[in-house]
Amino acid sequence: xxxxxxxxxxxxxxxxxxxxxxxxxxxxxxxxxxxxxxxxxxxxxxxxxxxxxxxxxxxxxxxxxxxxxxxxxxxxxxxxxxxxxxxxxxxxxxxxxxxxxxxxxxxxxxxxxxxxxxxxxxxxxxxxxxxxxxxxxxxxxxxxxxxxxxxxxxxxxxxxxxxxxxxxxxxxxxxxxxxxxxxxxxxxxxxxxxxxxxxxxxxxxxxxxxxxxxxxxxxxxxxxxxxxxxxxxxxxxxxxxxxxxxxxxxxxxxxxxxxxxxxxxxxxxxxxxxxxxxxxxxxxxxxxxxxxxxxxxxxxxxxxxxxxxxxxxxxxxxxxxxxxxxxxxxxxxxxxxxxxxxxxxxxxxxxxxxxxxxxxxxxxxxxxxxxxxxxxxxxxxxxxxxxxxxxxxxxxxxxxxxxxxxxxxxxxxxxxxxxxxxxxxxxxxxxxxx
Length: 434
Hints:
By secondary structure, the chain is mainly α. The protein has one domain: MFS general substrate transporter like domains (Growth Hormone, Chain: A). The protein has helices spanning about 5-30, 40-45, 50-75, 80-100, 105-115, 120-130, 135-155, 155-160, 170-190, 200-205, 220-225, 230-240, 240-260, 265-295, 295-315, 325-335, 340-345, 355-385, 400-420, and strands at about 390, 395. Strands 1-2 form a two-stranded antiparallel ribbon. A hairpin with a 2-residue loop joins strand 1 and strand 2. Helix 12 (about 230-240) runs parallel beside helix 18 (about 355-385). It is globular. About 55% of the residues are buried.
């Protein structure tokens, strides 16, 4: 029979969670900030659309390559060491990004940030899987992404307001210092498992046997995860849906609203803030709904279909800035929030001890999608660009952006195909007897 969770245990686990989720907020800030400072970067380094896309995507290139290694690190070294070291690297990268005087320097800073923050979400999900009950994983992971989006929202409207007083360089140097402080807090206070500080496991508190630990060398475990066919559809859902959404909202949405609809940076940032707020709300609601229903697949399919419909409206509906535009951006983010259930689904098709590796595999799809889409969107626009420039800044026409929207629709189709292949787990790990 389940027992009550000890009050001290609750204090410890929520303290650990708070340190890591604040770190995760900075991950989102770094991810989305290029949309607001895109004009500053183009002027400072005299870049084309494709070059700007490559600079912004540098974060995603490194992040993508690191997802499976991040899963291995979370399952072997543990979240404490992994996130501490990652935060140190990200802090140094942010400071370099703010101080760099050349395009190569700023690209290096962006790459270091991507490398450092690439381990945070996987480590955090590993912590959630160990410190919280399995039946609440969808809700807690949704809460995590919702809180992470606070950082994303701060990188839109609030950042645009801060830039009226301070330079983008100052912002990123300060952000780097804060990240270094969080690295220290992680090293001092985060623990990988309840047993590390004398608590029983969560399952033991509920009168159940603890899950079996890893039995193979990490390479053997990783091969077993990669060979699990049921884990791959979740990767393609995230590749097409969240990859496309983050690429647009995180870089091209504000230039689109500026060039096509005549909005200034602050006004355009309102739309990206609304999209990110929708993403935050969608993440926690889709996670809660999945846990409540006891189903994964219908929720994931519904999210991917809704996202595709919104992309169609952005590309073809006769909308304009105002209420309709804000609703479309809100729905774009909200529908993409259905991705959160893919993590719960993926960890339920492999052994519990391998949750970090499978989460890393799935997360690879998300960031590979964004890494491909950001420069591809810019490349598609450059193909039809008429050469018009204003204040040394390229100005693209509506038709140029339409080419980018077609790519988003193609990616959305990939997400729907992946969602239809999801294996239903009924919110339990199908590899063990619960």
